[in-house]
Amino acid sequence: MSEKRSKTVPAEELERQKEYAKQVRELMLLRTRNPVPLAHVHTYGCQGNVADGERIKGMLAQMGFEFTEDPQEADFILYNTCAIREHAEDRVFGNVGALKHIKERHPATILGLCGCMMQQPQAAERIRKSFPYVSLVFGTHVVHRLPELLYRVLTCERRVFERPDGDGVVAEGLPVRRDGVWKAWLPIMYGCNNFCSYCIVPYVRGRERSRTVDAILTEAKEIIAAGYKEITLLGQNVNSYGKDLPEPVSFARLLKSIDALPGDFKIRFMTSHPKDATRELIDVIAESRKISHHLHLPVQSGSNRILKAMNRHYTREQYLQLIDYAKKRIPDLSLTSDIIVGFPGEMREDFEETLSLIQEVRYTSLFTFIFSPRQGTPAAEMEDPVPAKVKSAWFSELLQVQEGIAAQRSAAMVGQVVEVLCEEMGKDGLLSGRTDGNVMIEFSGKPELIGHTVKVNVTRARNWILVGEAVAEAE
Ligand code: SAH
Ligand code: SF4
Ligand code: F3S
Description:
The protein has 14 helices and 19 strands. It has 475 residues and is an alpha/beta fold. α1 packs across α6. The site of iron/sulfur cluster has 10 residues, from α7.
């Protein structure tokens, strides 16, 4: 069967890239105006894109680059873009426009664009026509070929556009330079097969493909050995993990294997698609010590009519049944979700069903978006009679309702002792981190607690942030 064919990039191909990396290293040393070549990599969008950015930085480090936050001094500027909503794209075009003066001042600077937006033909075309000073554009399926692509830019004196279509590949063994100090992203699968009618992701990221359990466990062990305290498993729909492997494995089983690894770390994961989230998954969370009691389960809408038009394959009732089971099984479970307001054809009644659903579930927090038509998706072609002003009013109403729920939930936390991974100390001298349920908390305590899991007494709730004081290091 074709879907069982290996999608893994052959080892010889990665060796070839290492050879290019050596060449780029030499060429960049001659080209740079800095003591060592400097790269500025900026990633937009979701954690999956951030994880790609970490591999891109790993490869750049292999090519001799160090990194700078300041694009003015960089020899190579790369924007790793996102196409999820129009606003995300507008920001990229705006920021690319602003790079022109850097290129004028330092003509040797190489400007590059990659990521989901560049996988869209019309966006790549606009870059080709309107931003001639961008010399490298590559799509999501060729990230592992960055050394070769940079080599071509450096040697051909021509713009390089490499953005093949296709179902996508899995590249193992790429170097990773992680952004986080205590928290690490771990992609377990790539792509998406769901084609929710509003969403561009399946078009720009290819089909679902899973990494093997071995590859994931190897990376998890590296992460733990490097001292990270939290691993977040990533996929657009982690619940369909493993279905495409030659010997299928369920996500619940993968979770159990990671949970069984020795070490002091917590596990999170995202995103779960409600149509594939099972009671077995809830049971694994309930029975594990290392998996956080937090479930991000994007519902998108509370109206069955709209869920159908969105092609989500579950009903409000099925969703609520699963939530009900999860709450019974894990009483301190923290739930979060994504909601789209103003999907084409959404009426006031539909929107009110969303309001009533969030009141019933009582989420810890929500990521809320106004529908943004994406060229090439079915929803972009649907009748959309509701004026933008009405959609914004609904959006504000939704935020207000959720703020009320979050405030009540936070207030109920006061007086409780919660476990927090202490991440950093702010300018105000307060430590901060997130609770197991993924709520931000600031607290007083000694700086030595940074990097440790701490028991914190919650003394106050400030909007959606909790405030407290450290009482002890958790065992
Ligand atoms: N795979 C995840 C979502 C990834 S995109 C899932 O299925 O839940 C993150 C969120 O962006 C989505 O959950 C959705 O709420 C929002 N989103 C995606 N496309 C959108 C669009 N065209 N307009 C507005 N919001 C959108
Ligand atoms: Fe987009 Fe749906 Fe896939 Fe999530 S599951 S990435 S919303 S198509
Ligand atoms: Fe954006 Fe691509 Fe992620 S479109 S949300 S960066 S998968």
